[in-house]
Specification:
Strand order of the largest sheet of chain A: 1-2
Distance between the termini of chain A: 35 Å
Structural class of chain B: mainly alpha
Radius of gyration of chain B: 21 Å
Number of domains of chain A: 1
Number of strands of chain A: 2
Number of helices of chain A: 21
Helix content of chain A: over 70%
Structural class of chain A: mainly alpha
Strand content of chain A: under 5%
Largest sheet of chain A: 2 strands, antiparallel
CATH architecture of one domain in chain B: Orthogonal Bundle
Shape of chain A: globular
Helix content of chain B: 55-70%
Number of helices of chain B: 3
CATH topology of one domain in chain B: Helix Hairpins
Oligomer: heterodimer
Largest sheet of chain B: none
Largest interface: A-B, 50 and 51 residues
Shape of chain B: elongated
Chain lengths: 520, 119
């Protein structure tokens, strides 16, 4: 029974996608199915997290092949938490899509591909096998290609080509890294890798493979210096698509880094985590500076996606329990805030007539005061105003940085916070205070009854989540700390996957047993 | 044999990187094809080359004997080839559509999503 619950984050969106595909010519029914599937996913994800919090790491061996021979699905606190927050975003975006996605895109299969994207995202979060992770990344990738180019405007095709090109190369890097790791250890199961990698004699080779993983996942997560595809592509597709991309896709890369660099590559932390520290600092600064350099709301937000990835990598690079807890907290906070901001920018774009350059914005406060209040929450949280969620997450990371006396990274984090604050002030001035250059801006009433509810309700929901996390941070703080404990000391994870008595599998078919370099 | 194969993989990757440097998108795509093939050969290589040793479990035995071919990397390659083929055909169609829409395959002229004057 528990195996079904662990597999449900993959099965539910997959079934929803299949059902939507069956009713290809009935978009109205697809909408209902998409909403229903997202709601069911949310309920099951909640149950899974409750179960994990109560009973520890939950494991399902697919096809009853014992680990490490078969594919294992593992739900630890981090996985379950990520799936829960991803399913909240899926529901919010599914509601928003009712008012946003036009008939052409719906006929092109928007709902189906959206659910397939969720299959890839949830699969990446729950799998316990490195090659399986590669497969879920591909599922995510192909659906993101389709979503990005769906609609087929010139701008979209241009963005999609660049996005596709860089991702094909990242994929090849990932596959090569997986292959090399298999070559030195003879296993692909993550828990089994955690046991075997420390015994590999050739430490230099392991460090090389670790760097290849940093490159592969770094391209997905859009860290410095692999971030350039993100702001070239993310502002082009439909708003619902942008929001789910900004909220979830880069975070899957961060999750994969977090998983691999706490579980598998912990042997040479001075080298690997040193690289990650440089990456974190450079990512924060370039993202924040880039967001100040552009004069368009949605492009500035795309750059902000890059900047805040840096904070999460910083927590991973410091790698103390407090820092990892900060990263987990930041992941949750950032997914909610970024999705919310992109959805909000979509509404602003509609009100200002399809353009979000600063020159065309303004007068939002007189036109739509309540929308302004709702939008203030994610913007303030982005800049880290207390008492919103962004404040607590930055506080955790800065405290963790001070605790290890890494003054430089703390300084970069604070400067980035200041630059973000500057950007938020500028956005507020351009979008809300300034009078609209084209005369009176339109209010949300102009969106029309049902569309107005569908577009604004997700914003209110996500802002409410941000405020709740901000005012009552204790529960999320506790879950983050639990997830961090599980990551810093992965013994419970390993025991749950491989069984309490570690099995020593026979290395089948190896030409030279010595080449595997595993000491018993 | 393994040394020769390793150098072959290196040569393919070098060729792929050279093609990536081109502004012509089609060449970049050919580079991607070459790179994914190089990776597939690398996977075969990490499974150790055992020509003529079919992975058959002998009668009365439970596991493969030593020195026989490792079937797992071949399964991985098969998966990777299928996925790579799917991705590549989509991207080829996308690039063709891009050529129709934008009228060029020169990546330095594809500035629709990021206009140069939008500073």
């Amino acid at each position: 029974m528990i195996a079904w619950l662990v597999a449900s984050p993959i099965l539910v969106p997959l079934t929803t996608a299949a059902l939507c595909a069956v009713f290809w010519h009935r978009p109205a029914l697809q909408r209902v199915l998409s909403l229903g599937g997202s709601t069911l996913l949310l309920i099951l994800a909640g149950l899974l997290l409750a179960r994990v919090m109560e009973g520890g790491v939950q494991v399902a061996q697919m096809g009853s092949w014992a680990a490490p021979f078969g594919i294992t699905l593992v739900a630890d606190t981090l996985s379950a938490l990520m799936i829960l927050i991803a399913s909240v975003m899926a529901l919010a975006v599914a509601v928003y899509a009712l008012g946003d996605v036009d008939a052409v895109r719906e006929r092109g299969g928007y709902h189906i591909i959206f659910q397939v994207l969720m299959v890839g995202v949830c699969g990446s979060f729950i799998t316990g096998d490195l090659f399986n992770l590669y497969v879920w990344f591909e599922v995510m990738l192909i659906s993101s290609f389709v979503l990005l180019s769906l609609g087929g405007t010139k701008e979209q095709i241009d963005g999609a080509i660049k996005y596709a090109g860089i991702n094909l190369i990242a994929t090849a890097c990932f596959l090569l890294a997986v292959a090399l790791l298999y070559g030195v250890t003879g296993t692909l199961n993550m828990a089994d890798l955690a046991v075997r990698v420390p015994h590999v004699a050739n430490k230099g080779l392991v460090s090389t493979i670790a760097v290849l993983f940093i490159i592969a996942f770094g391209m997905k997560a859009a860290v410095f210096p692999f971030f350039f595809w993100l702001h070239a592509a993310y502002h082009t597709p439909a708003v619902a698509v942008q929001a789910i991309f900004a909220g979830l896709l880069t975070k899957v890369g961060v999750y994969a880094l977090l998983r691999c660099f706490t579980l598998i590559f912990t042997g040479d932390m001075g080298w690997t985590h040193g690289i990650l520290m440089w990456i974190a600092g450079a990512t924060m600064l370039t993202g924040a500076l880039g967001s100040l350099a552009v004069r368009d709301l949605r492009r500035a937000l795309s750059w902000q996606v890059v900047a805040h990835i840096g904070y999460m990598i910083m927590g991973l690079a410091i790698a103390t329990p407090l820092a990892i807890a900060g990263t987990v907290f930041y992941l949750v906070h950032d997914i909610v805030v970024k999705t919310n901001l992109f959805l909000g920018a979509g509404v602003v774009r509609r009100l200002s007539g399809g353009d979000t350059s600063y020159a065309r914005l303004g007068g939002l406060f007189t036109a739509a005061p309540i929308l302004c209040v709702v939008l203030f929450v994610p913007l303030a949280s982005l800049a880290g105003f207390p008492p919103f969620s962004g404040f607590w997450s930055k506080l955790l990371l800065v405290r963790a940085g001070l605790a290890v006396e890494n003054w430089a990274i703390v300084a970069v984090a604070l400067v980035t916070g200041l630059l973000t604050f500057w950007l938020v002030g500028r956005l507020w001035a351009e979008m809300v205070w300034k009078s609209n250059p084209a005369g009176d801006a339109l209010g949300t009433a102009s969106l029309g009854g049902a569309a107005r509810v569908a577009l604004v309700a997700p914003l209110v929901l996500l802002s409410a989540i941000t405020v709740t996390i901000g005012l009552y941070a204790e529960p999320l703080m506790r879950v983050s700390a639990m997830a961090a404990d599980g990551l810093v000391d992965p013994q419970a994870y390993i025991d749950a996957v491989l069984g309490a008595v570690p099995t020593t599998p026979t290395l089948v078919g190896a030409a030279e047993p010595a080449a595997m370099e595993v000491q018993p | 044999m393994e040394t020769i194969m390793a150098f072959a993989v290196g040569g393919m990757v070098a060729g792929a990187v050279y093609l990536f440097l081109s502004r012509q998108l089609l060449r970049v795509l050919f580079g991607v094809i070459l790179l994914s093939n190089a990776v597939n050969v690398a996977i075969l290589l990490v499974g150790r080359l055992t020509p003529g040793q079919a992975p058959l479990i002998g009668q009365g035995q439970e596991v493969l004997g030593q020195g026989l071919a490792n079937p797992l990397p071949q399964a991985l390659i098969l998966t990777a080839i299928v996925i790579g083929f799917g991705l590549l055909s989509f991207v080829l169609a996308l690039v063709y559509r891009g050529y129709q829409e934008l009228g060029t395959l020169d990546s330095s002229q594809m500035r629709t999503a990021e206009p140069e004057d939008a500073a």
